[in-house]
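Crash report, auto-generated. Payload:
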Amino acid sequence: MTSINIIGTGNVAWHIATALQNANGFSLQAVAGRSENSLKDFKLLAKDTGLLNTLSPAALTIIAVADDAINKVIKNIPYTTGLFVHTSGSAPMSVLSQFENHGVFYPLQSFSKEVSVDFKEIPICIESHDKKNVAILEGLGFALSEKVKEISSKEREQLHLAAVFVNNFTNHCFTIAQDLCDEKALSFDLLRPLLETTAIKALANRPDTIQTGPAKRNDTETLKSHIKQLSNPKQQEVYKTLSAAITSYYGKKL
Amino acid sequence: MTSINIIGTGNVAWHIATALQNANGFSLQAVAGRSENSLKDFKLLAKDTGLLNTLSPAALTIIAVADDAINKVIKNIPYTTGLFVHTSGSAPMSVLSQFENHGVFYPLQSFSKEVSVDFKEIPICIESHDKKNVAILEGLGFALSEKVKEISSKEREQLHLAAVFVNNFTNHCFTIAQDLCDEKALSFDLLRPLLETTAIKALANRPDTIQTGPAKRNDTETLKSHIKQLSNPKQQEVYKTLSAAITSYYGKKL
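Recovered output after restart:
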């Protein structure tokens, strides 16, 4: 049985702690957080919860805190034995180099406590210099998910950047669409079936093969009238930049 | 039984013709297209298929062609009786004003022949000056879908613009993400679970309440390093414009 400590009480910590309940061969020894209040939810999931400086050593310590908190946290861990990993998409593995055994365990997903996810479907990106440690992370990865892959820090950096386009930017496009509906007292529900189909198509196809719309067709009349229709300058900029990017992308391909 | 002619053989025509097979009280009399070849697929769906000038009058004529083809098509319809509608998101209703009875029947969805859709879930936006015609379109709408709404040309224009953000722009964001993966020989499948969750969350929430990421946090270090990481200037522009839009959007709200 591999004992695990989790440091952090946010969304990633929560989902890993939950998934660990059904992971054969791994036991969640303790969860450490900054306050009793943040630890409340974890009392049913871990044998122990407490402040960081009260932690006992574990075979594997998972640091699931915000990127800019990693440095502070690692200064305050009261032991150096075992394997230490972080769960960040963008922090390099080297931020943990003060520990002899260190690596990365990055679940590529956008977590929130309110939305339950099927952990089996989440790609887990693992990294370590040491083969023995890779094997431990692979073991944990496959105990939680069907998709585990060794990914270097450089590759993970690229995935994290791509994830910004897949999640952050698309969600802001949805937000602008919602605001445009609000403006004319139209329900955003009218657009949700289209939103769903957009995702379903991109799940089954290379997205560049299913692009449609006025920018792809370089339909300058519609583009002009859309820009005129937008009264908000920020929305206009997004419209212009994305349309220009699309027109140039497919123009080059013709 | 209301007889229907469809003019056009593209994706919208195909999906309406298919859905009409199960619509009580409506019968698909004929589908008109430019060539025998384009009409092939419709032979099992309509009583008759043929060139536009061979059409017999029907109670309802659905013009499902590209926006810039509507004007040409209506000059060549060999009758003026019955109700005429187009299926366009952006063309105003008035393009059909040469017909005494005219209106709009706009299914708000992105259709492609390869992807079957549940027509019952598709919002149908209808419009006509005449109450009797609205009733006919409502009847057809509810025979095909559970979501039928009277929408003015001005409102439809806004929905169509919002649809560009929901579908065209998000799909291009997916395309950039795919290209970033290709660049480092990473599989886009690693990002598909995130893509799916992004949509699931926006289907269940107001998108502005679930925004995350470096631009929302105004995490300038990550933003700078991401921009440096992008070697393609068009990708850089999209990144900068969307990040600035997000930062300003949530900055104002704080």
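Post-recovery validation: The mean pLDDT of chain A is 95.
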